[in-house]
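Protocol step 4 of 5: obtain the predicted structure for the target chain.
Materials: sequence only (see below). No template structures provided, no constraints applied. The aim of this step is simply to have a reference model before the mutagenesis design in step 5. Sequence pasted as it appears in the construct record:
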Amino acid sequence: MNRLLRTSTALALALTVMGNPAFADMDAARAFLDQHIGDLSALTREEQEAEMEWFIQAAEPLRGMSINVVSETITTHEWESRVLAPAFSAITGINVTHTLISEGDVVERLQTQLQTGENVFDMYINDADLIGTHWRYQQTRNLTDWMEGEGAAFTNPNLDLDDFIGISMGMGPDGKLYQLPVQQFANLYWFRHDWFSDPEIQAEFEAEYGYPLGVPVNWSAYEDIAAFFTGREIDGVTVYGHMDYGRRDPSLGWRFTDAWLSMAGASDLGLPNGVPVDEWGIRVDENFRPVGSCMSRGGATNSPAAVYSIEKYVDWLNNYAPPAATGMNFSEAGPIPAQGNVAQQIFWYTAFTADMVADDLPVMNEDGTPKWRMAPSPHGSYWQEGMKVGYQDAGSVTLLESTPVDRSQAAWLYGQFIASKTVDVAKSHYGLTFIRESTIQHDSFTERAPRLGGLVEFYRSPERELWTDTGFNVPDYPRLAQLWWQNIGDASSGLRSAQEVMDSLCDQQDAIMARIERSGVQGDVGPMLNEMRDDEYWLSQPGAPWPKLDDEKGEPITIAYEELIRRWTE
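Step 4 output (structure tokens):
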């Protein structure tokens, strides 16, 4: 795998092409394939060269153009920026600047272009969470029509959309594709398997709590396990039973919009996002028109289950996580479990896997296998069978209508290049964010699976389809998402109660949706808010919002990790 980390050749290719665009030919392609791909591809070498030849020929009318692409800073996109962008430039003669910034900044730049019509970037790699926004505003190029129209001559005949495991995440209710995934990762549960399987620790836990230590199925068991491990000394270090983050920062919003309320049980039953109330607590009518997020309009953002989800978050953050966690953001908190003093994390993104498997980490065994494992996240006491079980991120190619056609064509070529069958296996070994079935089933991942803590088994299981991104109910992701971190920051800092925070959040969401409704900019698919009624009216109706439970603790349930793996592999 070391050759995947080398970028010197790719940088040299970039310098060459900048100085001599005529070098954009098969010599550059073969050099790239030799030094960065090899047999780490779903294609044979002959097929790889044929695909590279197609890119060279398709790019001919655009050779010499320079384009700007932006994505969030995660391991996969770092490899795209440092290796694939220079290689693409050398191979095609189209110079790509692939900029890496925070996810919040990506959304802000995209929002600016949507609002002003000024071309800020030629391509955005942003989450398919914005599908409700793109479908309603119709300012994003519809890739289904694009591939048959202005993008036809620039669409790879070997793109193979059926091979993409998350293609449905970028589709609107109209069945059109608006975003093409280039990286994908799930939100799962992370734990120290070596500690959980230690006979002495197991005996102590069962003696204290009366049931076996194992993967927690529900939040009640997670809480018990967090309390059990917090403050214990294991292997010479003081252990914490939980890890999270609490800084008032845009990343705090993802902590909740990425399905936390539905994991608690606040949404309706129905996949992929709850019907008609989704994981943000937003209710829609039969035409996907948002009708409200407060209980007074039939929503669930401030419902008992939603408030319970925030109360548990704050309680666990304050009582079971390292003290510094309250002042951390997403990026700062991510590497902490790898330091060796955290027993479990309920809300853990598999995008961190690549940073968890370095040989010298205290969470790795001498033979290169991890001391940790990943498993499905436990659910809250309001959760019912048939509800959404977790979140999956699909960072996707997004082309806006305000970008000139030729620049979009060049960007579309680059987007397909970084998602191509030629490069995807190698890229996935570096970033471990799978997008293609052919990559997941590649022999190299069968060989590497024991070193990845359950990641390969999860993605080879049909259960992966139960983890979904943010759906159609959210009419304007950029404007609504920023409300979450601003409000929940008050809960994490102790300034306001969970109920006060969620009341404020739903009021503000409804206010924004009301302004969109009055503006008419989203036409007959935009918000059309319900008249306000007493909360009790909606709490007495079937489905979400759900009435408050008498016992929010519930009976704790665990399951053996080996049983989960058996289910995944069978």
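Step 4 remarks: The chain is about 45% helix and 10% strand. The longest strand covers residues 180-192.
Proceed to step 5.
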